[in-house]
Amino acid sequence: MIGLSWMALAGGALAVGGVAAGALLTSAEEQPKARKESRPFSCNIRALSPGERARHNENTARLRSARVETRELQNGLRFRIAAERMDLATLGDWVALERRCCPFFGFAIEVEPDGGAVWLSLTGDEGVKDFIRLEIG
């Protein structure tokens, strides 16, 4: 069973239902506007051990194949994830590791009610969309 603790560690946000999700996405979209300085988009490959890197690469491949829809946000991209191809625990693990090597991303996982869609949003400073497209495809 998945608890909220992995999301706290991942620094992401877990929203259940449309109301909370909208509020989370709105605050995530507003964050880059408040920043005065732009950070470089560079990953720290030393942030993960070799075993973690291998697991993260596998989960990134799984994320790419689980993505069934992409929506553009003002400051990032939002992906609908096929739950049968990538479960929440694996998605949370991906966020936790990605956050360590690419700390400039903002993350939000939204789980719609009644077996609805699972969404992953990646956000950041200006130009982050192109970086996400390179990383996720």
Descriptive notes:
The chain is α+β, with helices and mostly antiparallel strands. The chain has one domain. The chain has five helices and five strands. The protein has a five-stranded mixed beta sheet, with helices on both faces. A hairpin with a 6-residue loop joins strand 4 and strand 5. Mean pLDDT is 77; it is low at 1-36.
Which shape, going by the Cα principal axes?
Answer: globular
Q: What is the end-to-end distance?
A: 30 Å
Number of domains: 1
Percent helix: 40-55%
Secondary-structure content class: alpha+beta
Determine the mean pLDDT.
Answer: 77
Reading the helices and strands in chain order gives: HEHHEEHEEH
Strand content: 15-25%
- Count of helical regions: 5
Count the E strands: 5
**Major sheet: size, sense and barrel closure?**
5 strands, mixed
Rg: 14 Å
Low-confidence stretches: 1-36
**Spatial strand sequence of the major β-sheet:** 1-4-5-3-2
Short description:
The protein has 137 residues and is of the alpha+beta class. It is built from five helices and five strands.
